[in-house]
Every structure is written in structure tokens, then in C-alpha cells.
Amino acid sequence: MVDPIPSGAEIAGRLIALRRSIDDLEVEFARLAAEFDKTSFWDLEGYNTAADWMRFNCHMTSHAVYSAFAVAASEPEMPATMGAMRAGDIGYAHVATMARTAVDTRGAFDEEKLLPLARTNSPGKFFHKCLHYRHSVDAAAYNRDQETLHEQRYLRLSTAADGCLLINGLLDPVGGAVVRKALEPLAKPSGQHDDRSREQRYADAWVDLAGGGKPASVQVTATIETVKSLAGASAGEMEFSPPISAKTVQRMACDCSVTRVLLDQDSVVLDMGRSKRVVANALRTALKIRDGHCQWPGCERTASWCDGHHIVHWIDGGPTDLENLVLLCKRHHRMVHEGGWQLLRSDGNITTVAPTTTFGLARAPD
Fold this sequence. Notes:
Blueprint: H1 8-37, H2 41-44, H3 50-57, H4 62-74, H5 79-86, H6 92-104, H7 111-120, H8 123-137, H9 139-151, E1 154-159, E2 165-170, H10 173-183, H11 198-211, E3 220-221, H12 224-227, E4 237-238, H13 246-254, E5 257-258, E6 261-263, E7 269-272, E8 276-277, H14 281-291, E9 306-310, E10 325-329, H15 330-337, E11 342-346, E12 349-353
Antiparallel strand pairs: 1-2, 3-4, 5-8, 6-7, 9-10, 11-12
Helix pairs in contact: 1-4, 4-6, 6-8, 7-8, 8-9, 13-15
């Protein structure tokens, strides 16, 4: 006999009951952790603290261990909170936040003020309410904690063997919020074919932000043969980067400033012309007015964050005029050059052609 499939209401009831059992076990674990801290077992095992022993042997994060110790230490100060958890009005996550607040406020803790907030807010919202409470009872201490977080900030840049830039860092809450605010609008999906992960969109947004929405302001050295992508041509050279491909050079040369530099066989400069912008200011303004945003179908990235793309590249004889130019965001500009997509303009409309698309059928044998 096949067991009947439980209904949604039955599963929901089991989830709530199971969570309450887990919450009770979390409190029991916290009490036991406090007792374990009083022993010397963790020291004999070679650990610096009981918390370190628990992190490794109980497979916990430092935050979870700290919460357990805080709950055990603060339990006598919050009897009503423990009763509310046993009644199912709040969860262990609320209790842990309440306990950490009791520890951090150092004697100014008032359970009667916080428990109503725990009952009416999710654990995440309650955490923010407790931060406001901490500030209200001791603004100076709260500010010191914030300054401590700020002093821990860092950004570490290193280059991998393949030339990729490795980024590792930490920002305080205010700095993090500023970066998130700047990245979020640029990290939105950009129309059709945007199968990038959220992390990839954030990475692309960071590059866009670093460029300020302007054409590349880095120096790229390449021969005419490289820009033309001729067979046998050497790669391009760019500061802080290993040699880059001809396709990348072509994309960066689409909308940039070009300076002619003539070298002899010993790389001695013989002649250096004036820098000349490919898409000059007046033409760029007209392009922005006409297109308004990235012209890839379905993409609405604003003109300020787009490049001027030559439908027929200027190195191949394409003119630098409105008819041969189109605005593309950084991602879609890359898809055209490095990705092999093609753009066709017909009656003012842009059509995209995937690199795998072929027209017509192969001719049969005669």
C-alpha cells in the first residue's frame, strides 16, 4: 500500500514542530557549551579556547559559537524571552540576537523593551531593531564598534599566473552599502541571452564602475596587423595585464583615443602623433541622443554606460559616422567582438546574428 502524499498543511505543521524541537536543542546545546568552557578538556586537546574546539569538532561558524555562549550567559536575564520561545511565539534566532544584545549593552539590557519587537518582527528585522536599541542606550560604544569595523577594512589585489586579477577585501557596513548602491543598478540582467550568474554580473558591474561608463582609459600598444586581426600578428600589450587578443584590441579600439607611435627595430620612438578620439565629442553627443541606450534587443543600459561600436570597424574602412555607429553596453560590445556575434542594421533597426547562425544550405555535390 502506497502511503498518501502529505498535504501542504501537514508538511507545514511538521516543519513548525521540527523547528521548535531544534530550537529547544539549540538552547540545550548553549547550556552544555557553557559547561564545557569550564573544563580543561579543550586545552588538553591542544585548542586555544573552547570556542575553537567547538568550531572544529562541532562544525560551527564562529558566529554560531559566540551566539551559543551568549545565550547561556544571558539566559538568567531574559526569562520572559525563554518562555516566549517555549510557547512558539519566537524562535531561537530571536533568542540568540536578544542574548548578544544583552552581552553587548553591558548592563543596560531591558528585556521588556525588546521582547515585543521580537514577537512582531522576523529574526532579520529584529536584528536591526536591536542595533537601534544598542545605539540608543550607548551611542559612544556603538560608534566605537563601528569604527573598529572601519579599521578592519582592506582590499588586496594580486595577479594569478594566467594574468587574472584576484580580489579579496573587507568593507565596513557604510563602505559596503556605498559599493552595493553603486553596483546594483549596473548588475541587473541586460536583456536577452543574459545567462550570467549574479556573481558574474557583479564582476562586470565593478569593471563598468571602475571605468566610470567611459571608453577605456588604459594604454594599449598594438600593431596595425593586430588591430586588423591578421594571421601571424602578435598580441596587444596593456599595462597590468598579460598580452591581450586581437579581438579584445579591436573592441577597445572601437571607441577610444588613438595615438600614432612609430618605432624602429630597437623600439626607439621615431615619431609620435597627436592623440585623436575616434568618436569625437559632437558625434558622441549625437549618438547618445539618437540611440539613448544600448541597442542590443531587450537591453536598456543607459547611454552613459555604453560604447560607440562601429558596425564596420574603422580599421576595415568603416566610416566613423552616425550611420555606421551604434551604442552597445560593455557586455554586448564584448559579445560582438570576442563572442563572434554580428549586428545588422535595416531601416534603423538592429538585428543580432548568433555566431552559430548560417544562411542557406550547403551546396550539394554536382
